[in-house]
Structure formats: C-alpha cells, structure tokens
Amino acid sequence: MFAVVPAAGRGERFDPSAGGSPKQYAPLLGASVIEWSLRALLREPRIEKVVVVVAADDARWPPLAASIGESGIGAGKLSSTSGGATRQESVLNGLRALGATAAPEDWMLVHDAARPCLDGADVRALIEALDGGAGGAVLAAPIVDTVKRESGGLVSETVDRTGLWRALTPQVFALAQLEHAITDAASRGITVTDEAQAMERLGFRPRLVQGSPFNIKVTRPADLAIAAQILRTMGEKAR
Ligand code: CTP
Ligand code: MG
What we know:
By secondary structure, this protein is of the alpha/beta class. The protein is about 30% helix and about 25% strand. It contains seven helices and eleven strands. The chain has a seven-stranded mixed β-sheet with strand order 5-4-1-6-10-7-11, sandwiched between helices. A two-stranded antiparallel ribbon has the order 2-3. A two-stranded antiparallel ribbon has the order 8-9. A hairpin with a 2-residue loop joins strand 2 and strand 3. Helix 3 packs antiparallel against helix 5 and helix 5 (about 175-185) crosses helix 6 (about 195-200). It is globular, with a radius of gyration of 18 Å. It starts with a strand and ends in a 5-residue tail after the last helix. It binds cytidine-5'-triphosphate and magnesium ion. Cytidine-5'-triphosphate (CTP) binds near residues 87 and 113.
C-alpha cells in the first residue's frame, strides 16, 4: 500500500498573490499545512511509501522534506516528484513515480496536501473497508445542510439531500486501474475533481466510508483558522 499526496497547486482561492508560497506551506500550529496532512499517512504502518507531488519550481519542499525525515516520523517513507497543470495530472505523475516500486494491483491512497485534519482512525477505516473485495473506497461525510440549486443568483430548487455525501480524501484504488481511469478521462478532455470520479466513469462503484466531517480542505483564508481549531480539538490524537 502506497500514498500519493498532490501538493502542486497554486492555491488561488486561498491567496491569489501567493506567488512562491501556496497554502500547503501556510503556518499551522507550529508546522505547515502539508506537514499536518502527511502525518497520519506517515504514521500508518501499512503504507510503505508516500510520494509528494510538488510544483517543478517549488523551493520550499526540499528543506521541509529533509526536516520531516530528520524528525523520525515515517523515516525513509517519503519521496517526491513534479506535478502538472491540474490536480489529476499531478496525481498521475505521482502514480507513475510509484510505478517503479509498486505492483499494478497495489493500493494507492490519494490525499490532498491541503487537508491537514486527517485523523489516523479514518485512514484505518478506509484501509479496512478494502477487505472483502471492494474495488476502491472513498472517505466521505453525509451532507447535513439543506441543499439549493442556484440560477442567476436566485434559488431555483431545493435538492433532496437524501443519499448525498461530500467526497473527502484519502481515496484508495489499485494502481493500474486508477492510472488507466485518469489517463482515459484525460484523453477525452474530461477533468475529474477526484479519483472516484475517474473510476466511476469506467463503471466502478467505490465504497463510501463515513469519515470525520472535520477533514476539511483548506481552500479559502478562513479555513486556516478553522483547521487550527479542529487540530486543537483533536489534541493528542493529531500530534
Ligand atoms: N493540486 C496539485 N496540482 C495541481 C492542482 C492542485 O497537486 N495542478 C493539489 C493541491 O496542491 C491541493 C489538492 O490538489 O493539495 C487539492 O486542490 P485545491 O484545493 O484545488 O488546491 P489548489 O489548486 O492549490 O487551489 P485553487 O484551486 O484555489 O487554486
Ligand atoms: Mg484547484
């Protein structure tokens, strides 16, 4: 079992002027967002290696990787490769980098660098959901709010939220199948926003695993303060 952590985004919604320091490097409770995002993966003994996909010109990653290595968390597990223009290209590059070490049927967990509040218990639940022949699995949280469809700034309808979930990460699929699914979507000019979407296109039905609704993606500036509060509440479990 392996993990791919896409971290090559520019974080435009978080800070359009971020330049060389996108949100994954924003300081968060004495570390950076990405260090928190990696923690539960590096600590999971069933994950052999974690490849972080960073922008080709990312000067922040190498020293950070060295310091994570020295900290002893997941010693020897971490490597990196270069990302692409979209998240799906970045994930594909990560899968290809692991292709040299991993077998086609090996499980690949894909987790956003921008999700620092991942609980180790959710990683374990996701992995355990693969027992019994699932073709893949996705952490998700049921939608609790009433959902509206907008049209021209006005509400056009209330969408029945029964059976609707927010897809989170990690998501886990077999290397060769996921690589094929993402390549197939790309070859048809389709941009998918998560791994499950690429797999669903080809008829797969990933298992939904209920995870913590606090596994948020840092997207806008206010999310950073929310993430800090969540991590404080998670307390020792998160450290
Ligand atoms: N990502 C990536 N390569 C890209 C785009 C995104 O590896 N070309 C990563 C991001 O670094 C992030 C994850 O995919 O960890 C989820 O994407 P998102 O939250 O959309 O991050 P950004 O694309 O960086 O943000 P924005 O869309 O606001 O620019
Ligand atoms: Mg994006």
